[in-house]
Amino acid sequence: MDFSVKSFKGLAAEAATVFTRAVQYTEERLGTSDKTELDAHFETLAQRSDRTKYWTERLVGKTEAVLQPNPNVRVEDYLFEKLDKKRDRLNNTELLGQDMIDAGTDFGPGTPYGSALIKVGQAQQELGQAEREFGRLVHTNFVQPLRRFLDGDMKTILKERRLLENKRLDLDAAKNRLRKAKATDPAAEKDVRSCQSDFDRQAEITRLLLEGISSTHGH
């Protein structure tokens, strides 16, 4: 029973926090409440992070479309990659080369037409193999590192930025409660100091992560 009561109190406190943040956000949108602004350097870092995410996602998508124009096959390859299952599949150039060789063999390697088909087919297969190797290298050395960045560092940055925004809403809500107090309110003042400390700490964590994007650009 005691555990259930504690769980209920925890849920109630969490719901109250969410509600307070929603009220603060709404008042800011309506222009009836002040909003703590981050410094210009932080905003510049945040904007660079947004641009990095946007262009990285576009570059990954466009590169994958060039390597494999068929979207259904791209989805299949992505799923197999997640399952760590490699699929060796002939590309269209290799398939064309194989058909040419088969046709040339059927017509007869000793005939001019058959001989020509076999030679061109072999050349097509070599081109297809080079194309496949090029795709493998691009995927390994370009696409995969960018995907790891998006799935790793960028997800962490977005998570910490959302947390910072929540801390900022908590701080401004606490400031508003203090301003609205009709008399000196030690509890409200303590709440502001606590929220300010949490906000400053989260801002520093987020700033360090955002500054780390510079090293990402350098690799």
SSE diagram, text form:
Elements: H1 2-30, H2 40-67, H3 71-82, H4 92-107, H5 112-180, H6 186-211, H7 213-218
Describe this structure in words.
It comes from Rhipicephalus microplus (Cattle tick). Keywords: Coiled coil. Pfam families: BAR. The protein is mainly α and 219 residues long. It has 2 domains: 32 residues; 178 residues, Arfaptin homology (AH) domain/BAR domain (Substrate Binding Domain Of Dnak, Chain:A, Domain 2), CATH 1.20.1270. 85% of the residues lie in helices and 0% in strands. It has 7 helices and no strands. Helix 1 packs across helix 5 and helix 5 runs antiparallel to helix 6. The two termini are 56 Å apart.
Offer a concise description of the structure:
The chain has 219 residues and is mostly helical. It has helices at residues 2-30, 40-67, 71-82, 92-107, 112-180, 186-211, 213-218.
